[in-house]
């Protein structure tokens, strides 16, 4: 009877330690998965924020440039409608080209 008691006393702590280790390992796994997901979500959010800031800033800059160009044309040229129309068309073309370039750069970045 004494031998059996000794074996049981030795076995119980080992089993408890193994159970605890399994629980710790599974908790660590879950924490690692959650961390990986959080990091990837943060990276995506950062990319979106950076891209949107770049787009907003570039659109504001382009609008300002267009306004300045229109002002310069209106002041410099003694309002010849044909010249103003040509300048407007070229400005629109430049803006469209810049937008296309921006979109392609954004796609490349993402």
Automatic annotation (TrEMBL):
What keywords sit in the KW lines? Answer: Membrane, Transmembrane, Transmembrane helix
Q: Does the keyword Membrane apply?
A: yes
- Residues crossing the lipid bilayer are 23-46, 53-77, 89-109
Give the top-rank taxon of the lineage listed in the UniProt record for this protein: Eukaryota
Can you say what this protein is called?
Uncharacterized protein
Source species: Alexandrium andersonii
């Amino acid at each position: 009877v004494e031998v059996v008691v000794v074996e049981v006393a030795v076995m119980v702590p080992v089993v408890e330690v193994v159970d605890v280790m399994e629980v710790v390992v599974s908790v660590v796994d879950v924490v690692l998965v959650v961390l990986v997901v959080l990091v990837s979500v943060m990276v995506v959010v950062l990319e979106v924020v950076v891209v949107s800031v770049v787009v907003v800033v570039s659109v504001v800059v382009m609008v300002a440039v267009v306004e300045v160009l229109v002002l310069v044309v209106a002041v410099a040229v003694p309002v010849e409608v044909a010249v103003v129309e040509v300048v407007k068309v070229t400005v629109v073309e430049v803006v469209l080209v810049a937008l296309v370039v921006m979109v392609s750069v954004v796609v490349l970045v993402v």
